[in-house]
Amino acid sequence: MTRGGKLPLETPPSAALLTRLIGQIVIADLKAPYVCLGTLVNLDDEFLELTDADLHDLRDSTASREVYTYDSARLGIRRNRARVFLRRDEVVALTCFTDVAIS
Q: Rounded to whole angstroms, how far apart are CA atoms 37 and 28?
């Protein structure tokens, strides 16, 4: 960060938005039939790095993406990766875990 709270000019605008989520538990919906939940710890132009993550193949269960996410918000993340790198061009949505409606 520079003085005034702005990121350096070489930081892409999308990265500036995403940096607010660093340190937060997030849900990454991917183009492929996968969803990934975990703590966003780093990002660059190509990758998002998540730790304590659950990379879930939706083809392995009968639950839809929405049901799996909802259940994870209610019951907790089923960690199966210490660290995972996601290609940013494969991510269609990134949501803060606390923004999942569980009512």
A: 6
